[in-house]
Amino acid sequence: MNEISQLSVVCTHITHDASGKAKETKRRFTNLNTKATDSEIRSFVNIIAHLINETFDKVEVVKTQVLA
Q1: 8 pLDDT exceeds 90?
Q2: 11, 56 in Cβ contact below 8 A?
Q3: Which of 8, 15, 18, 44 could share a disulfide with 30, CB 3.0–4.6 Å?
Q4: Number of C-beta neighbours around residue 44 at 10 A
C-alpha cells in the first residue's frame, strides 16, 4: 500500500452580497497529520468553524500519495 505524503483540507464558505451574487471564501489547512482518520478531520473542521464562527458549505480533503 502506498503511503500518503501530504494531507490538506480546504473548507469553503459561500455568502451572497446585496445584489445576490455569490462569493466563495476558501480556507486551506496544509501539512496535517497524514494518519488522520475521516472522523478526526471532521472534528478538526468543527473546531475551526466554532473558533472563527463560520459554517462551511463544503469540506474537501486533498491527499498526496507517491505511487512509485
Answers
A1: yes
A2: yes
A3: 8
A4: 17
Helix (H) or strand (E) holding 9: strand 4-16
Instruction: Return the domain boundaries, the chain.
Output: 4-65
How far apart are alpha carbons 5 and 57 in whole angstroms? Answer: 27
Go through 5-27 and write b for each residue having 16 or more CB atoms within 10 A of its CB, e for each that does not.
eebebebebeeeeeeeeeeeeee
Q: Residue 1 and residue 30: Cα distance in Å, rounded?
A: 23
Cβ contact 26:12 at 8 Å: yes
Q: Flag whether pLDDT at 1 surpasses 70.
A: no
Tens-digit pLDDT profile for residues 22-66: 999 999 999 999 999 999 999 999 999 999 999 999 999 999 998
